[in-house]
Amino acid sequence: MLRIIGVDIGTSLTKAVVFDHAGVSVAQASAPSRVRHLPGGAVEQDFEQVLGTVASVVREVTAQLDGPVDALALTGQGDGVWLRDADGFCVRPAISWLDGRANALLTEWQRTGVTRAVFRRTGSGMFPGCAGPILAYLDEHEPSSLDRAAVAGYCVDAVLQRLTGEITVDVSDASLPFLDPRTRQYDDEAIAACGLRHRKSLLAEPAKPHAVFRLNRAGAELLGLPEGLPVTGGPFDLPACAIGAGVREPGDGILTAGTTLACQVLSTSPEFDPEGEPAGMLLCTPDEGRYLRGMPAMVGTAGLDWACRMLGIDVTTIGELLTASTPGAGGVRALPFLSSSGERAPFVDAAARAQFTGLSLETSRADLVRALCESIAYAARHCFEAAGLTGTLYANGGGVRSPEWTQIFADVLGKDIVVPGDPGVGARGAVLVAAEALSEPFDADLWAANSHTVHVQPQIAEVYEQGYADYLDSLASARQQWSR
C-alpha cells in the first residue's frame, strides 16, 4: 500500500494519520485550531492559523515514519464560506459553518419560499451557516469582500489551493446548496433564487471524479514534502467518514456523534421528494451514481459539554452518570437544540431552542444528563427516518467513545451499531479515496474489519418507542412556539 498521509481539518482540531495495508494507524498527530465567536452570532476562523495546523501535523507525522511519503489526502469541515484571492489568500476571515449572522435572512427566505425553491432544484435544504445565505448576507452588508475575492469556497479547497495552486472544489462540498446532483453542475435557477446570479463567477468548477493534484513549490516548502507529490482534495468530512467507516451498500448509514450530529445514508439514486421538508443535504460522492442523503443536525457533544459546564461535571464521568439514571431519565424529557444557530436537520429553524421538562426536587444531575443524551439519540432517529436508513448502521465521533451513550443510541434507533476501532475515520476515508484515485489496490473488507458491534437491548428499545413518540409530540408543540 502506498504511504498516504490522511489529513482531516476539523473545526477545532486538525489530525493527520498514516495507515498500514490493513487499515491500522501507524502514525498520527493533531493540532488545535482557533474558533472565534463574535457578536451577532458570527463565527470565524483565521485561515493562516488553520493552514499552520496542517503544516504542523504533516511535519509531525512524517517525522514518525521510516520512509518516504507517497501522497497526501485532504478532508475536513464543510459549509461556511472561505473567500480567497487568485493566489489562495483569504480576503477576510473564514466564515464557519457554525455562523449565525444570516439567521434573520434565512428566516425571511423560509417565509418567502426561497429555501423551498432551492430545495426543489438541488435536494438540499439551507441553514444559516451554508454558502447561500452567507454569500447573500455578504453581498448586502459586505460587498467589498466579495469584490476582492476570486473564489468563494470551503476549507478543504482553500487548503488545496495553497498547497497546489489549483482553484477547484470537491463535488461533495459543492453539493450544498447550488449543485444539481443529477448533473454535478451548478443550477443557475438555485443561484438566482438566492439573488446571487451576479456572483456565480466566485463558485469554483467542481473537480472531476478521482482528480489528483500536485504539491507546488510553496506547498512543498510549507509541509516539508517533495514538490510534485500527489494530493487529493476531498470529499469533505461527512462523506469521508462514511467511506472510512465502511458504508458501501445502499441503505447503509453512519452516525457521527461529534460536536454536531451527522446522520447519512447511502443511495444509488439522486431522486428526492421535492415537496418534502427542505432540510438536509443530498451529497455527491467520489463515485458517480452514488449519493449520501445527509441529515447533519446541530445537536451533539457540544450540548453535552454545555451540560457538564452548567452542572460542574467532568466529562469523564458521563458514563457513570448515564448508568446512575434509568432509561426514561426519571421522567425528565429534553429537546436538545442548544445551538445559537437553531437546527438544520431534519428540519431547519434558526429559532429552535432547547428545553427540559418533568423536573422535580428529586431530579438528579444523572437524570438531566441522561435526558439530554436520550434526546440527542431521538434526534438521530428522526434524522435517519428522514434519510431512509434500511441497512447496516456504523458510528464514529467522540460521542461513541462512551459505551453507555452508544448503547442508548442503539436502543433508541432499534439498530445494532458497528463502531470502527480506529478513531481517525475521516482521514481513513480520505486515504481510501486517494488510493482509488491513484489506482492503488486495497482490501476494503480488511480495512473495515477492525470494529466492534453494539447490540440492541430489545426490552429497553420498547421503552424508548414511547419516549420517541413523546419527543416528536414535544417537538411539534415547540415548533409552533418558535414560529411565533
End-to-end distance, in Å? 58 Å
> What is the fold-level CATH name, i.e. the topology of one domain?
Nucleotidyltransferase, domain 5
- Write down how many β-strands occur, each being a DSSP E stretch of 2 or more residues: 22
Q: Which ranges are low-confidence, i.e. pLDDT below 50, for 5 or more consecutive residues?
A: none
CATH class of one domain: Alpha Beta
Label the overall shape. globular
- According to CATH, the homologous superfamily of one domain is ATPase, nucleotide binding domain
CATH architecture of one domain: 2-Layer Sandwich
Strand content: 15-25%
Individual helix count:
17
Let me know the largest β-sheet: 7 strands, mixed
Radius of gyration: 21 Å
Structural class: alpha+beta
The whole-number mean of residue pLDDT values reads 95
Largest sheet: spatial strand order: 16-17-15-14-20-21-22
The percentage helix is: 25-40%
Short description:
38% of the residues lie in helices and 19% in strands.
Structure description:
It contains 17 helices and 22 strands. It is α+β, with helices and mostly antiparallel strands and 484 residues long. The chain has a seven-stranded mixed beta sheet with strand order 16-17-15-14-20-21-22, with helices on both faces. A hairpin with a 3-residue loop joins β1 (4-9) and β2. α10 (237-245) packs across α15 (425-437). The longest helix has 26 residues, at 458-483. It is globular.
